[in-house]
Amino acid sequence: MLGPVLLAASRSDAIRRIVSAAPLTRPVVDRFIAGEALEESMAVVRALTERGLEVTLDHLGEDITDASEALRTRDAYLALAEALKTMGLGARAEMSVKLSAFGQALPGGHDLALANVTPVVEAATEAGTTVTLDMEDHTTVDSTLAILAELRERFPRTGAVLQSYLFRTEEDCHRLAGEGSRVRLVKGAYKEPASVAFQDKREVDLAYVRCLKILMAGKGYPMIGSHDPRMVAIAQELARRGERKPDEYEFQMLYGIREAEQQRLVADGHRMRVYIPYGTDWYGYFMRRLAERPANLTFFLRSLATRG
């Protein structure tokens, strides 16, 4: 029952202030966040790519309140694209964006987010890489997929994320399983009502497998976003049955979680991409990671106790 509590806490300004101010929080956060500055995150990128891993970078900052903050998000991603281009990492590193950080939730947010994210996708293309649109709560799905469709007209490699716990996702998978599409499939990390999403973990897992089968049978490029050993094994079997080559799908896991498994997949010849968040606005992301798995919360509390 802690998961819903932590998800609610992820949007509480009061709890944000308490957690952020705690002197023992920072060392634990560093396990999941690559750093607050771009330079710190690029050092992490270099280290991971040298070990055979690929990465996707997320500049944290979804809770914006005005258009000027959305412009700062745009500029942060433009700087990231330039850094990837300068370091020659476009083939190994892509970018993940949350459209809320580009103004999607503001008045006129759909058009504002599209206008702000388009130059980022352009810069990514110039850097030899691409962008994946992260999915947020269910109220944003239609807007996000509409923006995806517009971007793919000019930048067909633009990817999207689908969340298996939403009832609608199987249908979305059918629509996005076509040739040239890139879809990261995850279980979902937002608190959603029973009217739109499965609440039982078993139902979410079963939906994930159904969605994965659709994507793996299609002509697109599936990105398996899961730390669940069962889902990893199922994806490997589906790839084998479908005679997919190693460069026709990939696994994705979060920075700081199941690192040994990430290296094992690379050693076995799979493409393995690490999702790397960075930036100062880490609180919401961090709390959702704690909510996803009890082991993450246990690690956090144990670390606080040990350092105390």
From TrEMBL:
EC code(s) of this entry: 1.5.5.2
Reaction equations catalysed: L-proline + a quinone = (S)-1-pyrroline-5-carboxylate + a quinol + H(+)
Cofactor(s) demanded: FAD
Pfam families: Pro_dh
Proline dehydrogenase domain residues: 45-299
InterPro entries, A to Z: FAD-linked_oxidoreductase-like, PRODH_bac_arc, Proline_DH_dom, Proline_oxidase
Tagged with keyword Oxidoreductase: yes
Keyword match Zinc: no
Keyword terms: FAD, Flavoprotein, Nucleotide-binding, Oxidoreductase, Proline metabolism
Pathway(s) per entry: Amino-acid degradation; L-proline degradation into L-glutamate; L-glutamate from L-proline: step 1/2
UniProt protein name: proline dehydrogenase
Organism: Streptomyces gamaensis
